[in-house]
């Protein structure tokens, strides 16, 4: 329907779900899954923060905070791009967190916020768990 102008959130969601499907298929090795998740996560952070980028270069961490992307996801993106590849478990966790962000920030709004109202308690619990994990 959108042709080449597919919304970024739709494109990112599709890539992240594709990673989860490949992961659950058991056909790829750990290293291949890390690369697959990694590409999807790097694209997500780059594409979502790109819209906020002004003429001057603003650090990704600051842009991520402005759109409520957890800073550790930006750090994961940095490791995937510039450092040593992270563990598969961290890539899986990043995928789950980003898919949750997309659900809250994009898909729930597309569906008239029906999903947000139904899952408020569950989201609060998840936020507490993530905050404790970061500590």
Protein architecture, described:
It comes from Aegithalos caudatus. InterPro entries: Las1. One of its GO terms (molecular function) is endonuclease activity. This is LAS1L protein. One of its GO terms (cellular component) is Las1 complex. With 135 residues, this protein is mostly helical. It has one domain. It has seven helices and no strands. The termini are far apart. 19% of the residues are buried.
Descriptive key words:
globular, 7 helices, 75% helix, mainly alpha, 135 residues, single chain
Tell me the distance between the termini.
44 Å
Note the beta-strand portion.
under 5%
Number of helices: 7
Give the uncertain stretches in residue-range form: 115-119
Could you tell me the mean pLDDT? Answer: 82
The counted number of beta strands is: 0
What is Rg? Answer: 15 Å
Tally of domains: 1
Largest sheet: none
Helix content: over 70%
Shape: globular
Q: Structural class of the helix and strand makeup?
A: mainly alpha
The topology string of helices and strands comes to: HHHHHHH
Protein name: LAS1L protein
GO biological process, one term: maturation of LSU-rRNA
GO molecular function: endonuclease activity
